[in-house]
Amino acid sequence: MSVSAGHSENIESVGHLKRVLSVWDLILYGIVAVTPSAPATVFGLAELRSHGHAVVTILAAMVAMVLTAISYGRMAALYPSAGSAYTYVGRGLHPYIGFVSGWAMLLDYVVSPIFCVMYGSLNLHRVAPWLPYPVCALLFAGGITFLNLRGIRSTARANQLLLTFMFLVLITFIVLAVRYIAEHFGFGALFSIKPFYNPQTFSVRDIAGATSFAALTYLGFDAVTTLAEDVKDPRRNVMVAAVSVCAFTGIFGGLLVYLGQLVWPDYTTYTNIETAFVDVTGRVGGIWLFNAMALLLVVANIGAGMTTQVGAARLLFGMGRDDVIPRRFFAHLHPVRNTPNRNIWLIGILAFVGALVLGYELTAEILNFGAFLGFMGVNLAVFWQFWIRRAEGREREFFGDIVLPLLGFIFCTVIWVGLGAPAKIAGGIWFVIGVFVLATHTRGFREPIVLPDPANYE
């Protein structure tokens, strides 16, 4: 976006990203961004808040995310460019609303690498207590920045290696958990309705509140849309990848949580509620699997940190290229590696500093604020673009253009409303800053924001 029509002719002079990724690269990228071990980070608190129905919260959140992934995919088919919610909402609703949505999503993208560096460093410090925490944070932030500076192909290859290790540990847990349950409770205990419905503790209100927290499991799926200019055939592959990542996360994560509930049915007796899943792995596999899971969480946060950092860098690139933030800095691409290297450096520095000065709980709480505002905007954009405005050359479809996006909007709104007060206060401050930035660049909302021709990014 440029802030005036006079700037629009300069858009084509700005560099564009190269389409080098396959749909499988995109799916792997998304799975690493979410991480297969994501349920482990929410398991204990989701169990406690839902009174033993964590698997229900994982599956309920999956519904909202699959609906939203469909909306992302439909908008990416129309506008296959970097920028994610910023581009889709700006095109589908209004450029001003698109900027605000992009600004809200930027909060999630900026905080996610901080959270990954912070959580990964805490786990690394447990594995290697002789390393001071600041050193762990520096190693984390520096490592993911180095890998991303090498280019998107390097990121894709690193993702494949990270996934291999994570799946080895998690599949080992699944096998040992099945054996443990069969040996201690009988083979029939593997097929229990209790994790889905325990009449003694089942509460729709408590499960709904816990779902707002469990939705953290899926944060990062939308990172695949920030690579719309890196992937081949984006009109098809972005939707396929986004929906696949959400569905896989819900099904595989649901299985992990279901087995965890059966292995440790009394959710009130965890040694540490934040790392409850690590205790579960120790019960089925002993100290070696306990340590392997702790190491897995370190590796998972390397992968998630890499993908969220590059996603944030590309979101800044999209906003900088369109001149709503300084183009000279944010729209710069490395002449050889074709990466937005200045943005990658900036996010890496913020991740390191944030990991040192922010609290773990506050960082976790504000992750959902910006993400779900952006999700709500994208769902509304699909409804407005395809039903009210009707995309050129497309017939209206009641189910696809009204039912799916509005259901996605409702589910995301319910999850957003359930967030805690600290997240809403911190997110609200960020939101106000974004409105001020927008007002400054549009001279008090008097100048239009001119969106570039999407054909430039084909």
Number of domains: 1
Order of helices and strands: HHHHHHHHHHHHHHH
Helix content: 55-70%
Radius of gyration: 22 Å
- Name the average pLDDT: 82
Number of strands: 0
Contiguous low-pLDDT stretches (5 residues minimum) are 1-15
Shape: globular
Number of contiguous helices: 15
End-to-end Cα distance: 17 Å
Strand content: under 5%
Task: Name the CATH homologous superfamily.
Answer: Amino acid/polyamine transporter I
CATH arch. level architecture: Up-down Bundle
Which features would summarize this protein structure in a list?
458 residues, mainly alpha, Amino acid/polyamine transporter I, 70% helix, globular, disordered N terminus
Overall description:
It is a single chain. This protein has helices at 23-34, 38-50, 54-78, 85-92, 95-127, 133-149, 152-185, 204-214, 234-263, 276-321, 327-330, 341-357, 360-388, 398-417, 421-441. Helix 5 (95-127) packs across helix 6 and helix 5 crosses helix 12. The chain is built from 15 helices and no strands. It has a single domain (5-457), classed as Amino acid/polyamine transporter I.
Write the layout of secondary structure elements.
Blueprint: H1 23-34, H2 38-50, H3 54-78, H4 85-92, H5 95-127, H6 133-149, H7 152-185, H8 204-214, H9 234-263, H10 276-321, H11 327-330, H12 341-357, H13 360-388, H14 398-417, H15 421-441
Helix pairs in contact: 1-7, 1-9, 1-10, 2-3, 2-8, 2-9, 2-10, 3-8, 3-9, 3-13, 3-14, 4-5, 4-13, 5-6, 5-10, 5-12, 5-13, 5-15, 6-10, 6-12, 7-9, 7-10, 8-14, 10-12, 13-14, 13-15
